# Entry
Amino acid sequence: MICPRCGRDDQIFKVKGIYERGLSIGSYSGITKGVNISVKAGDEPHVFVGSTTLYGESQTLLSQRLSPPDKPKSPGGPCCIGCVWSLLSSLIMSFLFLIIFPENGEENMTIFLILIYGSLIFFGFVGVYLFFKKYKPKYTRQLEIWNKQMEIWE
# Structure
């Protein structure tokens, strides 16, 4: 490759290389000494010894501008939505069951528990399915765009 502006080939870099050259990371660990001088009359100064660890990062403006594109976040929370959906549906089902069958018989309680647990499981799966049906295609498109941008960036 040759620079279209100056015609030279010795200073051609990939975007990824320029980005990485603009990053710097450093750390320091060592012994730290300090002196505590009291303002009260008669107090003696105390010397303290400890250890310190410092960590830092810096990035040039050019490196910031040439940063890789952010990866899209995967749709989160389907389990929470499924749990809320199943909880609400089971509460509605139990309320309806208590209205329809007000007697407190053992058979009714068994049916009641089967209905509650069954609705929790069924509507939980329905909630997760509906969530992924809505958000998965959007995430897939965003991920395809991001992959193409990363190919160009590298």
Notes: Residues 106-153 form the longest helix (48 residues). The longest strand covers residues 23-36.
